[in-house]
Amino acid sequence: MPMVTLVALLACLAGLHTVAAQTHNRSATIDPQSLLQALNKVRASGCNGSPQATADLRMDPRLSAAAARVAEGTPLAIALKAATYRSPRTTLISLSGYAGAPAIAQGTVSHSCQTVMDAEFKEMGFFAKGPQVWIVLAVPFLPPLAADKDQIEARVLYLVNQARSQARNCGSEALPAAQPVRLNAKLHSASAAHAEDMAHYSYFSHTGRDGFHVSERANRTGYAWRAIGENIASGQMHADLAVQGWLKSPSHCANLMMSSYTEMGLAFAVNPQSDGGVYWVQVFGLPK
Description:
Helix content is 39%, strand content 23%. The protein is of the alpha+beta class. Mean pLDDT is 88; it is low at 1-28.
């Protein structure tokens, strides 16, 4: 996958121009805003059959700082962390020999058309050194909001019951349709406790730091159960993506489709400094 970078951080903050690619012994300066406008212009036109991007890119100096580090040999992931920029997805495009913003924009499209047209990429940065240019494109870190937790839990309930309404294959296992589940406040509490612990302490496991599992966490809430199960996920910015991930995983899919479950709780927790960023926990139960 191609990768991306931006202008040096000091150059961006000071409003300076950076040295761009050199062609035939001539040097040209690249104005960050000129490059941004040029890239947005080509994104608005589409390329090679890829539809045009519906939203403009915007500059972020942290991505430029990361690009400058990449130019020095730092891996992109480490450079992004050093620049305190979090993103669920980034890409780096490296070019050489293009002089001026319009030429660089066209060269970017020529080398990475589908990447440049990807509408999920909304932020960019760049760094230029001699004849080389590094452009970083990033999907912003936009986690779900705690204020929307009730609507998000209701959305997951809808998606789960929609999935349970029809037979499906979970890996190699063919499972029949199952009856819908309903929300349960105690299962929500068990989900929230584990999601918050994973987010706060930056780990990802069905086993809590205390060594307990979902059964013990459900017991703590006072939920009397005959059957209990748990799905977890991390990194997804939207509830729909979390459910899609569970359905693609044979074991999580089978858990979601288990006909004995009648109740469910769902919670998420966000910590931008953690490894996963966003942690999702879904607990299913059959009460006594």
